Amino acid sequence: MILLEYKNKIEELNRLNGDLQVFCAQYSVDAKIRYSLLLCLDEIFTNIVSYAFKDKQEHSIHLTLDYVDSAISIQIEDDGAPFDPIRSIPRPKLSKNIDDIPIGGLGIFLVEQLMDGLAYTRLNDKNVLCMRKRVVEFI
Question: Among residues 54, 77, 118, 122, which one has the fewest Cβ atoms lying within 10 Å of its Cβ?
């Protein structure tokens, strides 16, 4: 398990992506799963930086990465405004024409589709989002 800390700055995405690449290399995670993890973390981290903090102060975003039972577990914790991305955003009504889909909510929908598990809790005045991705496909 590794514990990482980032500031609420979009520039931190580069460091986060690099840290995730190193973690995945340690466990020989294949490119398809690594891409899914990067895409989901990019979405969640960008949303936290963009919307979680009402002030202009520097805040920490904590990330825990773990590899257990052929799955990668990711926990993201921030002290921003309470926000449950799983229950707060209505699921998009997907239509045949992309232009008919309203803006908003597609990112978390994508995360839900790519991850094998997603859970949110508010604990000690912090948002805690947990994601899980199997790295071994079951036949």
Answer: 54
Q: What is residue 85's three-state secondary structure?
A: helix
Task: Look up the pTM and report it.
Answer: 0.89
**CA neighbor of 67 nearest in space, from 2, 19, 125, 13:** 2
Average pLDDT, integer, range 101-108: 68
- Yes or no: say if 115 and 133 are a contact pair by the CB < 8 Å rule: yes
CATH no. of 2-134: 3.30.565.10
Task: Give CA separation, 82 vs 33, 40, 85, 121, in Å.
Answer: 29, 20, 10, 9
Cα 35 to the center of its chain, rounded Å: 12
pLDDT of residue 44: 97
